[in-house]
């Protein structure tokens, strides 16, 4: 029997357990009543530190070994999480930006960006979507990027991987529609550290602002969240630019 999904999530699974956005989101949701957090990532001191910080906020935190680049291990890593009890929210927050200038001349590094951001998320997303459907409720939040709306010369490797992820997440949301499970796609602009100069506020954001937008999107039942919100109009205009003009205006 699907449970009422109108309230805040009580249990979370964060794929990308050291992600600044993932941790900022977990902190906000703990403040709203989340009491169990699964942090999934490669075992490391950073993952343990993140778990300790969230535990100090009053949540029970369990670390889960997870490697986005090893899809064959995902079932063994994530299956026990769902077997142990219902998960109200899954956040796919892992990803790498890569180095465009370097990766263009080192194709294997470019492939690693694509495998992490897209292939790894496809495997994990399908597995988690099926598990949420089996329990009859839950939300899958997928961290996409405004960079996926239209690939730029400056970061087309990263942008293309996010474009694939975004399309996949939308399709998964359609596939799960009516099952009690929903998918929310989050498209931030350039994510800066809190102390970094903002530049154009229409295009940039911080992990805390993305977390706040995710929380608001969950409460509203949104399917797509832009961060900042005005980025939606900016990217709509960018998407419609003729290609020769786009080349001249966007680097």
The portion of residues assigned to helices is: 40-55%
Could you tell me the strand content as a percent range? 15-25%
Strand order of the largest sheet: 3-2-1-4-5-6-9
Number of helices: 9
Q: Describe the global form.
A: globular
**Major beta-sheet overview:** 7 strands, parallel
Structural class: alpha/beta
Low-confidence stretches: 1-5
Mean pLDDT: 92
Overall number of strands: 9
Order of helices and strands: EHEHEHEHHEHEEEHEHH
Q: Span from first to last CA?
A: 51 Å
Overall radius of gyration: 18 Å
Organism: Streptomyces fungicidicus
Protein name: SDR family NAD(P)-dependent oxidoreductase
Short structural description:
The protein is an alpha/beta fold and 251 residues long. The protein has 9 helices and 9 strands.
Structural features, described:
- This is SDR family NAD(P)-dependent oxidoreductase.
- It comes from Streptomyces fungicidicus.
- This protein is an alpha/beta fold and 251 residues long.
- Helix content is 47%, strand content 17%.
- The chain is built from nine helices and nine strands.
- The strands form two sheets. The protein has a seven-stranded parallel sheet, sandwiched between helices. Strands 7-8 form a two-stranded parallel ribbon.
- Helix 1 (20-31) links the parallel strand 1 (11-15) and strand 2.
- The protein is globular and about 55 Å long.
- It starts with 10 loop residues before the first strand and ends with a helix.
- Mean pLDDT is 92; it is low at 1-5.
């Amino acid at each position: 029997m699907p449970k009422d999904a109108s309230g805040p999530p009580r249990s979370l699974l964060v794929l990308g357990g050291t992600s600044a956005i993932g941790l900022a989101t977990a902190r906000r949701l703990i403040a709203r009543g989340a009491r169990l957090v699964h942090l999934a990532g490669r075992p490391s001191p950073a993952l343990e530190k993140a778990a300790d910080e969230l535990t100090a906020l009053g949540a029970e935190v369990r670390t889960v070994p997870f490697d986005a680049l090893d899809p064959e291990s995902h079932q063994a890593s994530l299956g026990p999480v769902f077997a142990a009890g219902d998960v109200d929210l899954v956040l796919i927050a892992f990803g790498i930006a890569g180095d465009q200038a370097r990766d263009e001349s080192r194709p294997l590094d470019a492939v690693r960006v694509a495998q992490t951001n897209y292939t790894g998320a496809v495997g994990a997303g399908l597995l988690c979507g099926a598990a949420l459907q089996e329990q009859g409720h839950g939300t899958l939040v997928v961290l996409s990027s405004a960079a996926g709306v239209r690939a730029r010369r400056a970061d087309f490797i990263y942008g293309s991987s996010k474009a694939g992820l975004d399309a996949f997440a939308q399709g998964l949301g359609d596939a799960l529609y009516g099952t009690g499970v929903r998918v929310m796609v989050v498209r931030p602009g350039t994510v800066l550290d809190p102390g970094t100069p903002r530049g154009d506020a229409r295009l940039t954001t911080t992990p805390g602002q993305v977390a706040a937008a995710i929380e608001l999107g969950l409460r509203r039942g949104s399917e797509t969240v832009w961060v900042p919100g005005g980025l939606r109009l900016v990217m709509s205009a960018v998407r419609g630019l003729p290609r020769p003009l786009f080349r001249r205006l966007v680097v």
